[in-house]
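Recap for those who missed Tuesday's class. We walked through two folding examples back to back. For each one, the amino acid string is listed first and its predicted structure tokens come directly after. Nothing is annotated here on purpose, so try labeling regions yourself before you check the end of the notes.
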Amino acid sequence: MNHAFYVYMSYGITAAVIVVLICRTWFDGRARRRELAELDAAGIRRRSARPVATATDGVSA
């Protein structure tokens, strides 16, 4: 074994870790979007969303 083996091995391990982190972030983002879509379909809204004015609110549209 020579010095190049350790250098290439460290680059390979670093690249593998970066790929794993990118994939994990991508899959987690997809899962969160899916959760938000399910909540939205169930009628649950975000707190930051504007409230929908209804006839019982006393607000005229």
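Example two. Treat it independently of the first, because the proteins are unrelated.
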Amino acid sequence: MNAFLEQSGLTKEALTHNAWELIPSLSGAIFVLLSGSLFYMITRRLIEAGLKRTPMQRSLIRITVRTVYKWLVILLTIIFALSQLGFNVTAALAGVGVLGIAVGFAAQQTLSNVISGFGIFIDHLYRVGDWVTINDHYGEVVSISLRTTKIRTLDNTFVSLPNSLVTNTSVTNFSEQGMVRISAKVAIPYAEDIEKARKVLVEAARHIEGIRRDPEPEVVVDALADSGVNLLLRIWIDNARQEQQFTFRLTELCKKALDEAGITIPFPQRDVHMIGK
């Protein structure tokens, strides 16, 4: 140790003196770090409480305060702590700016997702718990971050979609207004009475548990197809989570109700007329 100090041109007295001189600076840096942590803990709760009184979504509040605001406070605290140790704060701030520009160019796709994430919150496209279809993916929104939206499908698989993709494609939200209308398509022969089929299907639909009674089930003519008359049986439900479940049930009900009423469902057919010489 003594040989190393001699080669470095230092003495134990000089090291001791320098150490004592660093104590105030280290104490000041530690005080700044502790103060920054305490400041964040106090202001975080105040800011969250204030934002919860606004129409701002809870997910956006959590991301804004516990991610953006948190890292801003950490960055400023570290810079001020370094200033206590004698570092040039102005140079540090300039370096942070240059680094931010460099990171921005290197992570353009990530920044695009982040900006799109804020757009999702601002436009209220959907919330956690909503049932949506995004880019042909149907399921429940389980999380929204600044970069991605995660959807749980009916098969209990999870799909993570970049927010930039979400804002550049159509989004169907089944939960925004609460109740959802479900339709089942069924065909009857041209020779069959439409009103009879309507009464049969509506009466069968009224016995489905869990559907809304207002609006009531209805049957409308959808199209005059090649092989028969296409009807739509429509019902309303309160929870979009059950949309697929009721769709399957309604389709099966149409077949059973028409069979019991003696109404056949036509299949594709073509009449061929032979013309002699």
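Answers for example two:
The CA atoms of residues 213 and 249 lie 17 Å apart.
The first strand starts at residue 131 and ends at 134.
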